[in-house]
Amino acid sequence: MSPHQLYLWRKPLSYTATICRPQSLARRIFSAALGIAAAILALAGLEARAAAQSLSETERRNKAAVEAGFAAWAAGTGSPYDLLADDARWTIEGYSLASKTYPSREAFLREVIRPFNARMKAPLKPAIRNVYADGDTVIVFFDARGIARDGEPYANTYAWFLDMRDGRIVRASAFFDSVVFNAFWTRVTPAD
């Protein structure tokens, strides 16, 4: 391995170790691989089910509500967060600096979304790859990009598992690249 390759290899590892919860590299890699594998299996199973049968009325309604929320987000006129029930529980999975369960809509918006948006110069814009519905659960697989206040781009890929009731999100599990998020979160100071 050349010195340049060694530098590139070691830099993310040492950087990651300083911003992630303490644990072994092998465990972090295993946890990430397990999460990705679970998401792929879930998405593949839903895709096969969708091909085999049509969506129920509830599934169509839930999927349409989430897609409309994402369309509003992309247009800058709203967001999927508008669908959150007041007592919605939002869990950010993994080992990012924001990973935990937020017990309410307001707690999630206050601790994550508002500070995130305060770090952005140009708003985050989503681009959906796929949306799946199964019963009361909608899964959204998407990319999002924007420009941070320091002029650097922020780009991440997300998978959200949204449990719906009466057209509202009541529980969510969100997966994304924690290394990209942590670098952004620590590098960019929120606007006042």
Quick overview of this protein structure:
The chain is α+β, with helices and mostly antiparallel strands. It has helices at residues 3-19, 25-52, 57-75, 105-117, 178-187; strands at 84-92, 101-102, 120-134, 137-148, 153-165, 168-176. It has a 6-stranded mixed β-sheet.
Q: Per the principal axes of the C-alpha atoms, what is the gross shape?
A: globular
In helices, the fraction of residues equals 40-55%
Q: Which CATH architecture?
A: Roll
What would you report as the Rg, rounded to the nearest angstrom?
18 Å
Overall tally of domains:
1
- The class by helix and strand makeup works out as alpha+beta
Multimeric state: single chain
| Rounded mean pLDDT score | 86
Largest beta sheet, briefly?
A: 6 strands, mixed
Q: How many beta strands in the DSSP annotation?
A: 6
| Number of helical segments with 4 or more residues | 5
CATH topology: Nuclear Transport Factor 2, Chain: A
- Major beta sheet, strand line-up: 2-1-6-5-4-3
Task: Give the N-to-C terminal Cα separation.
Answer: 45 Å
Q: Could you name the CATH class?
A: Alpha Beta
**Beta content:** 25-35%
SSE run = HHHEEHEEEEH
The low-confidence runs, each spanning 5 or more residues with pLDDT under 50, are: 1-20
Protein name: Nuclear transport factor 2 family protein
InterPro entries: NTF2-like_dom_sf, SnoaL-like
Domain SnoaL-like: 66-171
Pfam families: SnoaL_2
